[in-house]
Amino acid sequence: MTTEIEKKSTSYLFGSNAPYVEELYEAYLDNPDSAPEEWRAYFDQLQHLPATDGSTGTRDQNHSSVITSFAQRAKANAFVVQQIAPPNLEVAGKQLHVQSLIAAYRSLGVRLATLDPLKRRERPEIPELDPAFYGLTEADLDDVYSATNTYFTKKTTMTLREILNALRDTYCRSIGAEFMHMSDPAAKRWVQERLESIQSNPNFDAEQKKRILQQLTEAEGLERFLHTKYVGQKRFSLEGGESFIASMDEIVNHSADRGVHEIVVGMAHRGRLNMLVNIMGKMPGDLFAEFEGKHAEGLTDGDVKYHNGFSSDLSTRSGPVHLSLAFNPSHLEIVNPVVEGSARARQERRENGKQQVLPVLVHGDSAFAGQGVVMETLNLAQTRGYGTGGTVHIVINNQIGFTTSDPRDVRSTLYCTDVVKMIEAPVFHVNGDDPEAVAFVSQLAVDYRMEFGHDVVIDIICFRKLGHNEQDTPALTQPLMYKSISVHPGTRKLYADKLVAQGVLDADGPDQMVREYRQLMEDGQKTVEPVLTDYKNKYAIDWTPFLGAKWTDQADTAVPLAELKRIGEKITTVPENFTPHNLVKKLLNDRRNMAAGEQNLDWGMGEHLAFATLVASGYAVRITGQDSGRGTFTHRHAVLHDQKRERWDDGTYIPLQNVAENQAPFTVIDSVLSEEAVLGFEYGYACSEPNTLTIWEAQFGDFVNGAQVVIDQFISSGEAKWGRQCGLTMMLPHGYEGQGPEHSSARIERFLQLCADNNMQVVQPTNAAQIFHLLRRQMIRQFRKPLVIFTPKSLLRNKDATSPLTDLATGEFQPVIPEVNTDIEADKVKRILACSGKVYYDLVNARTEREANDVAIIRVEQLYPFAHKAFDAEIKKYPNATEVIWVQDEPQNQGPWFYIQHHLYENMTAGQKLSYAGRNASSSPAVGYLAKHVEQQKALIEQAFAPKLKGFILTK
Fold first, then answer.
1. What is the value of pTM for the model shown?
2. 381, 387 in Cβ contact below 8 A?
3. Locate the Transketolase-like pyrimidine-binding domain: which residues (predicted)?
């Protein structure tokens, strides 16, 4: 039994004291002289005691095993007080309390940091930051304690007073750091060392300080110039947050020092014009012209000036850097995933892309806390398919958001940045009135991102001098805040006075800077020197071949039969020692027969051959979605899983990555459970990579509702507003098969409502050959338009929807498929049924049952752009047809009906009548009861073949 003496001699090694002992011992292992004398003697003796396994300890033992041996020895009575004289317990106890105090400042010091330029908030009481909380008194302040686990000094000891002063300077002045929530010990130590080694007090030389002041002068100068020259016009002023420009300037230059060659930036409105002029080098004269009504030629619609993107090549102290500012609508944070996708595409063109391409996202405080897409985008950060090696986030925190300033109305968290703790990103809160601190944390953020490949946040706490826009009067609702703002001299003035007091500038120096910048504004001259106008980036994509091309439905998408068979053999073969699931084995055998021409191709094989022939021809393919590897309806099986694999990270085989020796990449990703962020990411990717067939697939077409902002603000209108061509393809499973209101409709009507100016393609193909030619057409034509494909569910395995291999070797995608039944005599046809999608097969079966040979059925495969010539050619084949009926599965107020009726009417001949057959109008996309679905389906078929037209009738 362990004696009481032995218990006392070992108890301080465990329990709440263990972390301190571990840190001391770890430091001792690195350098025995770093440990306090009494502990060093203790560890020296301990090193040579026999372990529980009979071995002798040595100094190069790993840390964890030694700590474990402490506990084992205590339990086994392996040592007693006579063998090792422990340190003085009272001294050890106080040292532990000092250590707890240090840990508290690292975790909670941010709460006492001087972060608010307006000095409106009272500093809270934090008991854990008071030495008295740990029983430490005034008498202990000049006692000496170990400092081996801090970076304040190169000495091994400091007085408690020195430690306290260092802690307060480091964690409670202009910088408030949050990093102790991170689980990576190396990352935490890295932040501690960078902050504590200089006590959060950067040492900039005179030239660096002048540059910071120059950035503040330019930021303030542009806003004041615009305020007087364009009175009342919206610009979303940066006044009060000018330190943002100093931050961006440091990020651009410091990231270049770290090997970054491209920076992709996303930001909303506030400060955007300042960013364009003072960081990216947009000519002020061009900006002024936009204020005066000038607009870009060639855009059908255009956009307001504070939404527009820009790109430039800047000469930094470490070489050229390409900056791209993404176009951004008013939907605040929606640009976040778009930037990440663009950055990922650019990274994949480079050998060391994640180190050379840096995404930077600039947020508003309320938007960062309030917008769900922020969380969705953060959740992508460390995933294989969407990671970009870390993003630098900057929050322009004006403490008021849109109209409110009370945190109870803005968020439910202490800080607006708390959401980033979900990915363990460090946050550096910084007072915007201390621009040197802002510049320092900007360097720190870049270094952290480059070192650890993780996101990092700079929270610049500032204020908003004017209203949400320049026509707003914020004092109406925020009188107290705006009283403080009205007497604030401005960040530039405060810093200028500081530099004059330090002797960095003469008394007239700051005013001279102001006058010089004002003159540049008057002359409309650029403020950034030098912007490189002739720099050629070898990784840039040449969009010239895609610009100016006119719409065409035609493309040579056929592939020689021999090539189809060769490739078909490749994608149905697995390595020798690979064991697929029995169901997959059967599928591969069936596909092998399809490739040999022995049986018709199903939808999955049509897809696979399209992908395979594209990558063999040099076009990359990227497909992502929540079940894209297997396919939600288990039709694809692009990723095969070895049933005998032993580890999670191996045992998969992707046949489409093994088509040809020098093929283009094929990437398939099972995405995170997100629609908005993932679709935004893929849009950004496709906008930056026109030579990749980029596909986003919804698990069910209905789920695209969760990404409606991306569709409305980017996919459908990006070309009209910003001239941005994009070949993104969306696959949305759609079909009425009794699956209820959330698993039936991909909302065809919503997409058709957005169609104009040939802005995108909306297609509902009905067989394997059609999807083959459609996917190939998307890349082979020399223009890039978004493609929305309403893909089937039941048709994936419907034999009627299969195609012979020869249909892939000849022909092309058909926007309109004519009547294929050769028994139908054209001059005897009295009624034409026009339709799209799965209902075609229901109509064919019903016609056969009724022997209604006076009815022709035409499939409209491409709903937009409507193929008038093709449809007109088909309808004219039936000169005696007096009735045209549009048939659809969807309710009357949904689906294509309201869009397509005027297109049908335009091609009808005199005397023909147009009618509708389908479900009645409904507030829900589909019924939830299978029996009711079957009843409705039967009724709409009956309506299509009814002797007399019913419902809506329009006569030409």
1. 0.89
2. yes
3. 601-798
